[in-house]
Structure formats: structure tokens, C-alpha cells
Amino acid sequence: MGLFDFLRGSPKQTATIAKERLRIIVAQERSARGSPDYLPLLRRELLEVIRKYVNVDQDAIDIQVKRDGDHEVLDLTVTLPDKAGAAATAAAREA
Amino acid sequence: MTEFIVITSGKGGVGKTTSSASLAVGLAKRGKKVAVIDFDVGLRNLDLIMGCERRVVYDFVNVIHQECTLKQALIKDKRYESLHVLAASQTRDKDALTKEGVERVLNELKDEGFDYVICDSPAGIEKGAFLAMYFADRAVVVVNPEVSSVRDSDRILGLLSSKTRRAENGGPPVAQHLLLTRYNPVRVAAGDMMSIDDVKEILGIEVLGVIPESEGVLAASNAGVPVILDEASHAGHAYDDAVARLLGEERPMRFLEAPKKGILSRLFGS
């Protein structure tokens, strides 16, 4: 880095950012690898069904296929909205 | 024993063809009998990089469709007589390649006593790329130290361990190597480019070589002389090291450090 760069202030070390972003996305894509093809569709349809009853976010459902010994477990997590948010939407619906 | 090596990457423009040409030449230079095949049907380019574009009469697809013999389609290199090029077809559609056809050609090369068959994969994960990797014993994944290239390489590594003959037959897995190209030590030192260790850590496989970004690469493709033959280019030397490692030799990695700057350029930048 030259004197002028130094005076201008050190630029951000973008390589570190790149590495962090990659570490996360690669880990995520590896965990999805080899899981059944129907998962994204299952996720979408479940979301539609749940939304008939509870107003949840787009990313409220997390589906993963995990290995447990010699059988596979479909792990399904649904994050429900907090009470205040739910009450607000309910109130809005009644109004 | 013939070894099938696929040169692949997922992403385009990272240096697959440049690497295929140089690795093939490097192996031939060491006396190996080598065939290098362009799998990029419709976008033939290996012939240009090898400098034999005006000698293409028959191509890979002609051989697969049995419109000529393999011998007629193999172009003998002018520099090394144990080196042969099989050009991609320029006109046919992508479906021109079939699994059975590719297997037949590869088996024929095996019967002809070739030591190495280098399969230059097209970019993407379509049929051509799939067939280039399907029969591989080894894979050289060409990667630039840049986010999209690294991510695509990881995708390709996943396919290599699931969509290849070795994976399907439950044999030993396809041996995987990384070849880091367009490496710029100055930018790595400045923290603007991921280092060899960063890429190795993310992808988790062994590095076959690091090719520094070099003016020699463009000059070589301009001239149709693979860069490994350019004695003056660092990229050429780095490819030579990679070939040696491919053959089991141990060589230290070179060209990883930024060249030392004088006091003036240090003060005023470059």
C-alpha cells in the first residue's frame, strides 16, 4: 500500500468478507445436498396449509432430513409469530 | 493403464481449456501418451488454444456417430508426437453426445494404449459437463479465488461424488484436486483476494497447483502455444509443477508471494 492509500485510510479487507460468506453458503448447500428433491415443494405446500391458520413468515419453516442410525428423520421446525404480533394480526382481521 | 482426468469448474472463463492444454502438453513432454478431448459441443475452443484449429477435419461427434474412425479424428500435435487432440463439434446440437458413445470412444483410447485422457469439460452442469466427468478417475477442479467460482466448484465437487461412474458403481471415489488459477499475490497480500489457504479451507480438498495471473496466458492463447511451453512465464512454470505433482512428485508451491517492491513504489503505490 502506498503513502497516499495510507493517508486515504485503509480499505476494507474484502477477502475476509468473501471467505465468511462462502463458509456459510457452502455449509448450507452441502447440508441440502443428497436430500430428497421434493423438500422445496413440501416446504411450500406446508407453508400454505399453516398459513390458513397462523400468519407465519415465508421463512418460518425449516425442513431437514437427518440421519439417525440406519433410518432418516424428517425434521420440521415451524416458528410461530410472537404473541404481540399474532394479536395484532388477529385484531386487524377482526376489524 | 489409462487414466481419465476431467478438467472441470462449473463456472465459465476460469481457465479450464488453458489448463487442459497445458496439463496435456506437460504430460506428453514427459513421454506419456496423451489424448485431450474437447467436450464443449457447439463452442469448440481447445483446438485454438492448442494451435491446431486449421487441421480439424473430423471431430468428437463424428466419431461418436461413427462417421469416421477415431484415428481419423485424432489430431497429432506438431510438437509432441505422443499428444493427440480430439476437437469438439462446432455445428451439432448438445444432444450429439451420448453416454454410450462417449464410453465407446474412451474404451477405444484405452485399447490404443493411451496413458492419459484429458477431458476438457464445458462450463455449467448440463449434459456435456456431466459426460466429461462421468467416466473420470480423477478430477481437476479449476477455481479462481473469487466467490462465484468457489461456490460453483463446491457444487461440482458434490456432483463428482454422486453423479459419476465410480460413485454409481460404489468403487473408489474420483480423486479430486484443486487448481487455483488467476492468482494475484499482490491482491492477496492487500487482503483483496482470498488466499490459497482460504480456498483450501472452504472446499476442503488438496491443491494441485496455483497458477499466478500472468500476461503469458493471453499471449499463449494468441499464439496457439499452450502457456506451459513459455519458458519466460510464471504461469508456465506453475503448470509444469502441477504436472509433476499429478505424477506423484513433490514440489513446493511457487509464485505465492508478491514480488518485493522498491522504496519508491512502496511510498507512492503502483
Biggest interface pair, counts: A-B, 21 and 25 residues
Number of strands of chain B: 8
The named CATH superfamily of chain A: Cell division topological specificity factor MinE
The coarse silhouette of chain A is extended
Biggest sheet layout of chain B: 8 strands, mixed
Oligomer: heterodimer
Beta-strand proportion of chain B: 15-25%
* Helix count, DSSP H or I runs of 4 or more residues of chain A: 4
Which class of chain A in CATH terms?
Alpha Beta
Our estimate of the beta-strand percent of chain A is: 15-25%
Report the span from N to C terminus of chain B. 51 Å
Estimate the mean pLDDT confidence of chain A.
77
CATH architecture of chain A: 2-Layer Sandwich
* Biggest sheet character of chain A: 2 strands, antiparallel
Q: What series of H and E elements makes up the topology of chain B?
A: EHEHHHEEHEHEHHEHHEHHH
Mean pLDDT of chain B: 94
- Radius of gyration of chain A equals 22 Å
The strands making up the biggest β-sheet of chain B line up spatially as 3-4-2-5-1-6-7-8
Proportion of helical residues of chain A? 40-55%
CATH topology of chain A: Cell Cycle, Chain A
Query: How many whole angstroms does the radius of gyration of chain B measure?
Result: 18 Å
Protein name (chain A): Cell division topological specificity factor
Pfam family, one (chain A): MinE
Organism (chain A): Tahibacter harae
Keywords (chain A): Cell cycle, Cell division
Structural commentary:
The complex is a heterodimer of chains A (95) and B (270). Chain A has helices spanning 3-8, 14-32, 39-53, 83-94, and strands at residues 61-68, 71-78. Chain A has a single domain, classed as Cell Cycle, Chain A, CATH 3.30.1070.10. Chain A is of the alpha+beta class. Chain A has a two-stranded antiparallel sheet with strand order 1-2. Chain B is α/β, with parallel strands linked by helices and 270 residues long. Chain B has helices at 16-29, 46-50, 60-64, 70-73, 99-111, 127-134, 147-160, 165-169, 185-189, 196-203, 215-223, 234-246, 263-268, and strands spanning 3-8, 34-38, 75-76, 83-86, 116-120, 138-143, 175-183, 207-212. Chain B has an 8-stranded mixed beta sheet with strand order 3-4-2-5-1-6-7-8, sandwiched between helices. In chain B, helix 1 (16-29) packs across helix 12. Chain B starts with a strand and ends with a helix. Chains A and B meet through helix 1 and helix 2 of A and helix 7, helix 10 and helix 13 of B.
